[in-house]
Amino acid sequence: MNTIFIAGHAKLPTGMAARSIYETLTITAEIDKYYGVIVDASCTLATEHGRDYIARLLKGHSLRNGIDMPLDELKEGYLGKANPALIAALKDLYKQYESLNK
């Protein structure tokens, strides 16, 4: 396979629907080894619509270019309670990616 699978985690805020199922929010990504492009992504948000939104936001982005662009899109476009957890999980995922590419 020419891809790797990485997960980023963050604690969910209280009062969220997903919190009754998961304590943490996870963003997973399948990433092309050579180009760093996110081939597919998923997360543990409670709604399918939310999971699809995050997948569309991340797919096609190259982690070689950092995560500023998807973070900005997330900050501006996702206005739900999980926003801080999504941001933290994405940063954690990127940290995992960077540790593999040093």
Explain how this protein is built.
The chain is of the alpha+beta class and 102 residues long. It has a single domain (3-100), classed as Alpha-Beta Complex (Sufe protein. Chain: A), CATH 3.90.1010.10. Helices cover 38% and strands 24% of the residues. The chain has 3 helices and 3 strands, in the order E-E-E-H-H-H. A 3-stranded antiparallel beta sheet has the order 1-2-3. It is globular. The chain starts with a strand and ends with a helix. 25% of the residues are buried. The model has no long low-confidence stretch (mean pLDDT 90).
Overall average residue pLDDT: 90
Helix content: 25-40%
Number of helices: 3
CATH topology: Sufe protein. Chain: A
The rounded Rg comes to 13 Å
Looking across the biggest beta sheet, what order are the strands in? Answer: 1-2-3
* Broad shape: globular
The CATH class is: Alpha Beta
N- to C-terminal distance = 21 Å
Q: Tell me the total number of β-strands.
A: 3
Classify the beta-strand content into a percent band.
15-25%
Q: Can you tell me the number of structural domains?
A: 1
Judged by helices, strands and strand pairing, the structural class is alpha+beta
CATH architecture: Alpha-Beta Complex
Stretches where pLDDT is under 50 for at least 5 consecutive residues are: none
Key terms for this structure?
alpha+beta; Sufe protein. Chain: A; 3-stranded antiparallel β-sheet; 24% strand; globular
